Amino acid sequence: MNKKNKIELPKEKREEMILKIKNYFLNERDEELGDLASIMIFEFITEELAAEFYNQGVYDSYKYMNDRCEDLLSIQKY
């Protein structure tokens, strides 16, 4: 992902998400991840995967709004 399309998060949200990664590995895999490993996983997700989730959200919103606009046309008076 180029710099222009990079998803930016507030520092507090970033730290919260990194902590969730650490907790996931501890609870689900019984592995204690250090700060560096957790940050690297977080950066991989945000740089390589997040755009796909974002794009799916945009598409889902578009589809939802398009369906609602079709519903709006059904109330026309003839």
TrEMBL record:
InterPro entries membership: DUF2164
Pfam families in the record: DUF2164 (PF09932)
Protein name (database record): DUF2164 domain-containing protein
Species this chain originates from: bioreactor metagenome
